[in-house]
Amino acid sequence: MASKGGEGEHPSVTLFRQYLRIRTVQPEPDYGAAVAFLEERARQLSLDCQKVEVAPGRVVTVLTWPGTNPKLSSLLLNSHTDVVPVFKEHWSHDPFEAFKDAEGNIYARGSQDMKCVSIQYLEAVRRLKAAGYHFPRTIHMTFVPDEEIGGHQGMELFVHRPEFRALRAGFALDEGLANPTDAFTVFYSERSPWWVRVTSTGKPGHGSQFIEDTAAEKLHKVVSSILAFRQKEQQRLQSNPRLTLGSVTSVNLSKLEGGVAYNVVPASMSASFDFRVAPDVDLKAFEKQLHSWCGEAGEGVTFEFAQKWTEPRMTSTDDSDPWWAAFSGVFKNMNLTLEPKIFPAATDSRYLRAVGVPALGFSPMNRTPLLLHDHNERLHEDVFLRGIDIYTQLLPALASVSAAPGDG
Ligand SMILES: CSCC[C@H](NC=O)C(=O)O
Ligand SMILES: [Zn+2]
Ligand SMILES: [Zn+2]
């Protein structure tokens, strides 16, 4: 039966489907089950397993394969264990059943984002160990909680812990996105999330009057200014084929609040915006721009941040960089096309880059529609298995980089 796999199914696919069935879904992920699954993998692979509780119930699991030269910095393979919620009624199969159709598509929340990558790391390491390989650099696999809600009780805390420093990470891989073409995408930077709530205050009164200086009129002005900026950035993207979503700034108006009754003019109203600021933007100047938009709307218009990332970083994609040379060299050898881009949303890579660990976002999915966070998220088993082949080439190359900045 197609949905059960079983006979004839590749054991790596079976393991992937087992992991997909663990309900690590926000807002109440079953992290206990995920950690137990990972501990069992460590046991099976004879890997050292460390658990670091960065906040109550928020455990980072670290599986380690020691290298032969302890002087060298390590390779860190990161993945998050949580997944985003589902609208079950819009799915053709239970999102936590890991149903496989007759063609080999595996339907599950997390199949692309990013339980595939966790299992691909583990299976690549298993294969390499079984073949008797040893590499100079230590490989650490970190499995972190809460990425989907910003990583504030996950990677953001972990990078400041002594246990993280003790890993001596020299370079990291983290998540990327599916590419519908033959090519693979790699992300060397990401946009900064700025979540901004604009509050407008004004004169209240009876809804039948032409009240002067209302909160709504001033909020409308700010909304217009910001949506005009949105249109300008969208046009800039559409008119230049060299630009991608990650290289311009986007914004969406995602919440409007205020008011109590039709005939009561409210004294306060607010609008919330999700800005994703391109990494080449002058952030001080951009904040000034926000102040001007509010100021131009009139008195009593202010804003506050719910998220404000101010440390965008670029990981080198220059051939003179030893990590990039090793990473991109594998794709050349395998005759695969690589498209370097800026990640449009936010990942845990930003915390790694901010503490000086260069990171690339890569999920080996080509010929795959972008379905993360979407209904019917799925991945074809052949694409998944090909991803293990790719990591089986990538890990030896990266764990054998001879000299890199930061080596002891
Ligand atoms: C700013 S914290 C939110 C992080 C989230 N990451 C994945 O979707 C995102 O919206 O990009
Ligand atoms: Zn993700
Ligand atoms: Zn996600």
Annotate the secondary structure layout.
Blueprint (H helix, E strand, L loop, with lengths): L10 H10 L10 H15 L2 E8 L2 E8 L8 E7 L18 E2 L4 E3 L7 H16 L8 E6 L10 H4 L3 H4 L3 E6 L9 E7 L1 E10 L3 E2 L8 H25 L10 E9 L5 E2 L2 E10 L5 H15 L3 E8 L13 H12 L4 E6 L5 H6 L4 E3 L16 E3 H18 L10
Parallel strand pairs: 3-6, 3-7, 7-16, 8-15
Antiparallel strand pairs: 1-2, 2-6, 4-5, 5-17, 9-13, 9-14, 10-12, 11-13
Helix pairs in contact: 1-3, 3-10, 6-7, 8-10
The site of N-formylmethionine (FME) has 6 residues, from loops.
Word description of this protein:
Helix 3 (115-130) packs across helix 10 and helix 8 crosses helix 10. Strand 4 and strand 5 (105-107) form a beta hairpin. Strands 1-2-6-3-7-16 form a six-stranded mixed β-sheet. Strands 11-13-9-14 form a four-stranded antiparallel β-sheet, covered by helices on one side. The protein has 408 residues and is an alpha/beta fold. It has helices at 11-20, 31-45, 115-130, 155-158, 162-165, 215-239, 283-297, 322-333, 349-354, 381-398; strands at 48-55, 58-65, 74-80, 99-100, 105-107, 139-144, 169-174, 184-190, 192-201, 205-206, 250-258, 264-265, 268-277, 301-308, 338-343, 359-361, 378-380. The model has no long low-confidence stretch (mean pLDDT 97). Bound molecules: N-formylmethionine and zinc ion (2 copies).
